[in-house]
# Entry
Amino acid sequence: MRWRGKRVLVTGGASFLGSHLVDKLVELNANVRVADDFSSGKAENLAKSIDYIEVLKGDLKDKCFAESAIKDVDLVFHLAASHGGRGYIDTHVAECCSNMALDGLVFESAFKAGVDRICFASSACVYPTNLQSKGASRQVLLLKEEMADPFSSGNALADGEYGWAKLMGEMTLKAYHKEYGIKCSICRIFTAYGERENETHAIMALIAKAFIKMDPYVIWGTGEQDRNFTYVSDIIEGFILAMEKITDGTPVNIGTSEHIKIKESAERIFEYTRFKPKSILFDTSKPEGVFSRAADISRAKKVLGWEPKVSFDEGLKQTIDWYYATKNKDDVAQKLQILLHER
# Structure
């Protein structure tokens, strides 16, 4: 695909992932439009590319705004969603369910506008929770795309309302392909982290607590739960390749196959920041999500020629350096207190 001159819409383009995608598309000389309601996205995230893009502010659940945002574009990267870390998706279930209405309206508007392709940002939360429980083999099980097929017996156990909404978004988009032939792709994102991420997510929360030298240092859950952390630049590359190479709605995992315990990631943060708390409090009253989650990326390697390039240690160091260079301790401490009470 030749990106120069392509008219590209990024919904949720002021978000963490969205803004990095916008920066990459500008580098590729695409003509980029951002549609965002700025409920979680930030204008500052677009600072690098602001002189080269069009920004529309509005709610994509408003049909008129959705239609105007999608008018005269060739490609749509649909990232807009009500989302957050585990604390958010476990306590804002109605907001997460609203994503079904959002996705449906964006896909309908894109179809009616005759866009060439759609790439949908889905989530690892579409996978059955029973496959990610403590009883599953932590070091062996890697989630394959077919495990989230809701039409197969035993698979319909997505991770909460957020996971169900993402799964329904996938099904809706694939239905548009099946009935109308619209070209589309689906990227299932696994535990993204990196610069511009906010403190509602695990890695940023752990970094923030080290930044303010929290002691006792609080970790949600037992700390034994693991994730496969995927650095932002790798995810953006996955988005671009999926848009270029997949047209039939085939879902693809954009993640890593490495199991890293939450308490292990905290230890790495302590080592790099040279902060070591006197005590660590594992707060099991807080939500911790599934016990174990990692991706099988065989399909991504085969179909996209994609695999992660940035190691967890490298990405973590880059993220910490950015956080420490851009944040104020008083502001971070206040933000953590607000988040604690909101949850």
The first strand starts at residue 7 and ends at 11.
